[in-house]
Every structure is written in C-alpha cells, then in structure tokens.
Amino acid sequence: MTDVPADPGGAGPEPAAPLDPPVVRRSNYSPPPPGVEPPRFDDDALAEAMAAEVAPYTQPISLPKAPPVPSLAQDAAEVTPPAPAFEPLA
Question: What does pTM read for this prediction?
C-alpha cells in the first residue's frame, strides 16, 4: 500500500454521495387539533394477540421416552468370563 496525499478539494473519480436522498420527506401523521387529547391505544390486547400467535412455536414439546439402557455394572455381572487360553502349571 502506498501513501497518497489527501485531496483537499474532494475531487476524485466519482463525486461524494449525499447523506440524504434528494427528495422531500413526507409523513402521513397529522397531529390532533389543539386542546384535543391524542387517542390512546391498548397495547395489552396487541401483546396478547401476538403471544397467542406464537404460542405453538414457544411451548414445550413432548418426546417419546427411550427404553432404559442397562448400566455397565449389570452388563459386567451378566457376562461370563472367557475360558483361559492355557492352563496354568501346577
């Protein structure tokens, strides 16, 4: 990488992009008339409706129970020791 001196004029291969688009920003909000209290919304009803919608995805599920696996101690007790490969000298 090489050091290149800064271009104080900002002229480069392409112009700098503006931060905001060149359109007038519009809104559909209109405040209530003076002296009138703004409407109140019931957020609890919305929260309950959203909770009911996602409840099937957030509830615990039941899985079939796997058969019990015998412990190693039980396996060792049931296994007969192998016969010796040779007989010891007396």
Answer: 0.29
